Amino acid sequence: MAFGLSLMTPIFVVLFVVASAEADVYVVHMDKAKMKTLDASLGATKRWYDAVIEFIAESSPSIHEEEEQQQQRSSPDLLYVYETAISGFAAVLSTNQLESLKRMDGFLSAAKDELLSLHTTHTPQFLGLKIGHGLWSAPNLASDVIIGVVDTGIWPEHISFRDSGLPSVPSRWKGTCEAGTKFYTSNCNKKLIGARVFFKGYEAIAGRINETVDYRSPRDSEGHGTHTASTAAGNIVKNANFLGLAKGAASGMRFTSRIAAYKTCYALGCASSDILAAIDQAVIDGVDILSLSLGGFSRPYYSDNMAIASFGATANGVFVSSSAGNSGPTSSTVGNTAPWMMTVAASYIDRSFPSRVKLGNGKVFNGASLYYGKPIKQLPLVYSDTAGGLGAQYCITGSLSPKLVKGKIVVCDRGINSRVGKGEQVKLAGGAGMILLNTPTEGEELFADPHILPALMLGAQAATYIKSYLNTTTKATASLEFLGTSYNNPAPVMAAFSSRGPSLVGPDILKPDVTAPGVNILAAWPPNVSPTRLKSDKRSVLFNIVSGTSMSCPHVSGIAALLKSDHKDWSPAAIKSALMTTAYTVDSTGNPIGDAVSGNNSKFATHFAYGSGHIDPESAANPGLIYDITTEDYLTYLCSINYNSSQIAIFASISNNNFTCPDDSAPQPGDLNYPSFAVIFRNDSQSPTVTYKRTVTNVGIPKSVFFAHVSEPDGVSVTVEPDVLEFQEIGQKLSYKVSFTKQEDRNAPNDHSFGSLLWISFHHSVTSPIAVTWK
Ligand SMILES: *[C@@H]1O[C@H](CO)[C@@H](O)[C@H](O)[C@H]1NC(C)=O
Ligand SMILES: *[C@@H]1O[C@H](CO)[C@@H](O)[C@H](O)[C@H]1NC(C)=O
Ligand SMILES: *[C@@H]1O[C@H](CO)[C@@H](O)[C@H](O)[C@H]1NC(C)=O
Ligand SMILES: *[C@@H]1O[C@H](CO)[C@@H](O)[C@H](O)[C@H]1NC(C)=O
Ligand SMILES: *[C@@H]1O[C@H](CO)[C@@H](O)[C@H](O)[C@H]1NC(C)=O
Ligand SMILES: *[C@@H]1O[C@H](CO)[C@@H](O)[C@H](O)[C@H]1NC(C)=O
């Protein structure tokens, strides 16, 4: 997800594991049942983790015997104990101690701690939410839903987190408001009902937090956490805007939800051990929804701490919304892909911030910028050699020559340093303006950035033209014009940066799951963090416009909170199903959702970009049927992808049951009761037909009849059995089988085709996409 970080937070790009020769922090998973037995045998004297730590201290002789005699045998430093969503602990362990630990009964796995990365008012209207109607009507806003946001902390004084009009804190809430640097228990209120900070893992990896630039407290020094929390559940704030742009009311998706902030992310990233501690605590505290706008590299679920902790949260009834990552448009980049996680892609809304370049030869190009001010008249255009020395093409630090640049417009290519950082260099060198150019990889995707000088961004096609213009013209000039805010653009369009499927870890599950607004999103911002985060930027704003799957994820968190209050008995899987089966795949002009890579919607996006489609909150409140999934079903899925007993125990032991894989009939991964279909035809597979089973639950109208309607993927015939489902009552479950048969001539490897299965009744249409892959 590295790219995504450069998208908005360059400092978070780093994903690394700092290894010291002596000892490292390890995240250790232990069998919960066996730890309970150990607890029982210890009586009241101590807990299982004390015994485990004692055992490793005693049974691991130091290699250096001499040192050993001089020094006391040291106990491993225990950072965290996990007991609810996860079972295990985080501790500083030497290699020897780790070896001893592995011999303990109940040990499941251990991995070095590592840093993961963060992936960023008009949106409620775009999503069809209206005050006084449907999901935003009084009864649905009255009940108490608590959203836990695991992020960079929060700016508690922000107007978006005021609590006027909210009833008292729900009595079931067990969380707390932790005091720390510039953060007091009085900073929490009836809106921000909890705030905690976790940094033991981070400090063990990256050293002590520098308190001149960050806080050892839940206070946000970065902006990301304040932005995501207000997107999910911030108050309605009238006349919110960014320096005069995007004027209107800013509001969280469920503006009456309570927020609990769990700070785990700092300058270099977020330590796994801290994230696990935050999720474990959030589940104990009583959150209903977890919003996770962060992640790491895709890896098997048993070694993916985000997946493990999310499983435990889901097993405890918590809905987990997570960002898909910002590594698109390359395929198979999607992260946070465990089937129990909601994996959210990012797309554009209908709002843009247009700007215009006119070259000396009269040619005009449309760009994007959050700079808002007077136009720049025709000025000389400089680039690369004509602007400075080595690196001037990218406008990197110190590369531009003031003599060459002063009073001119500088052309800069994307790459290496941040987009706003390039503008800072141009300004420092005395430039009058900047034109930022995409490379062919970024295509026609345009970010509106809060540049500190008159600057705008153009797509790859304009870039090619301008470079040849610069080459062939001795006196190249350009003028810049900034056009404010524009609405009613065709939308949604998939963001090029949004990570794409198919999932490498679980190709049998279609990922991402849905898309939601994630480009140029206006939300709350700490007033002492500049909108560009550049030191030279002295602007202070209450709202900032940022992009990323980090921004789309909290939209889904807030919508899930609305669904949860409308349907208190729905499981996390049911909420997910409702959002997926009602998602749409056409834009506001009636065409398939486009892909920003190509510009002008000339290339349509696929289900590997948007999953089931764009979320439609009001439809999701009344989906007709749901595909429910139990904790046991997820464990059976893990059996079907051939995880061994110790790998499965990492998940199974959390839910406290004696789970064993069914041995009579081998389950297949595609049988997980998922609301979408991923079908894989392997070259070598014997049978040309794949058959999956599904069960739907009636949550609509008691007596209703649903008819199957299939849109067949290219090269595949699909049959549904039965193709009519007749329900008599609410809560009734009916099952069906769907068979996919490949046509003989269709065998091209690495190829995909797409279709859908709809269950249609008089009142409902329940849609599941079908994504076929030939391997
Ligand atoms: C902390 O950050 C400040 C400001 O960037 C810097 O001047 C200082 O050297 C840093 N302190 C340490 C211990 O790194
Ligand atoms: C510009 O000219 C240089 C040198 O003649 C050449 O290498 C480069 O490919 C040209 N670039 C474009 C965009 O035409
Ligand atoms: C977009 O469409 C306009 C008019 O239809 C055309 O002039 C322009 O070249 C197109 N741009 C791209 C990037 O396809
Ligand atoms: C499961 O697989 C892991 C990794 O290959 C291995 O370390 C472990 O011993 C296996 N467990 C069992 C019970 O086979
Ligand atoms: C799990 O199995 C063990 C041994 O068979 C038994 O003692 C224990 O009660 C079982 N636990 C649950 C939750 O069923
Ligand atoms: C897949 O099929 C193609 C065409 O029939 C064949 O050339 C290729 O060797 C096959 N690959 C595998 C891995 O079986």
- Rg over C-alpha atoms, rounded to the nearest angstrom: 27 Å
Task: Give a quick account of the main beta sheet: strands, pairing sense, barrel closure.
Answer: 9 strands, mixed
The percent range for strand residues is 25-35%
Shape descriptor reads globular
Gap between N and C termini: 25 Å
* Count of alpha/pi helices: 20
Bound molecule types: 2-acetamido-2-deoxy-beta-D-glucopyranose
GO molecular function, one term: serine-type endopeptidase activity
Organism: Oldenlandia corymbosa var. corymbosa
InterPro entries: PA_domain, Peptidase_S8/S53_dom, Peptidase_S8/S53_dom_sf, Peptidase_S8_Ser-AS, Peptidase_S8_subtilisin-rel, Peptidases_S8_3, S8pro/Inhibitor_I9, S8pro/Inhibitor_I9_sf
Keywords: Hydrolase, Protease, Serine protease, Signal
